[in-house]
Design goal:
Radius of gyration: 23 Å
Structural class: mainly alpha
Largest sheet: none
Shape: rod-shaped
Amino acid sequence: MPSQPITDTQHQDKSKELRALGFIIVLLFPALTVTGISAYGFVIWMIQAFGGVVAH
């Protein structure tokens, strides 16, 4: 089966997919991670502020 040459449209699609993947890896995942950890810390802080420190 002969391989088909890559068309200009396929090249543009691949370029868009790589940029989207780069955005997800470089910006989105770290931002979501920091936001999630910050929200968790804030929730714990509010529980301790209004409910007192939980004894062990």
